[in-house]
């Protein structure tokens, strides 16, 4: 009987702890969603030289900030593929600007 009560107490403790962890995760997800929204609003309202930023410029800013493509996609509300295409074109443009030539493989 005593063993059963100990197991029951341990199970209740673990269940309560799990509920606390789930609550923290939900709060974290809510915070991330709000933070992503704030970043998106800031990017949408940024108007250097009176013009709205292009998606490619937003992707560049976020990538330069150290965000991964999946995070950028979530913030901007676009697909990861769209982000990766923009990153690829940005890298290609940078290579052209720095004079690096692509070596063809035989």
> Beta fraction of the residues?
under 5%
User: What sort of overall outline do the alpha carbons produce when their principal axes are compared?
Assistant: elongated
Number of helices: 4
Total beta strand runs: 0
Mean of pLDDT: 86
Features:
single chain; 106 residues; mainly alpha; 76% helix; elongated
Task: Write up this protein.
This protein is an all-alpha fold and 106 residues long. It has four helices and no strands. It has one domain. It has helices at residues 2-45, 55-64, 69-76, 80-98. Helix 2 (55-64) crosses helix 4 and helix 3 (69-76) crosses helix 4. The radius of gyration is 23 Å and the shape is elongated. The model has no long low-confidence stretch (mean pLDDT 86).
Brief write-up:
This protein has 106 residues and is mainly α. Helices cover 76% and strands 0% of the residues. α2 (55-64) packs across α4 and α3 (69-76) crosses α4.
What topology does this entry show?
Blueprint: H1 2-45, H2 55-64, H3 69-76, H4 80-98
Helix pairs in contact: 2-4, 3-4
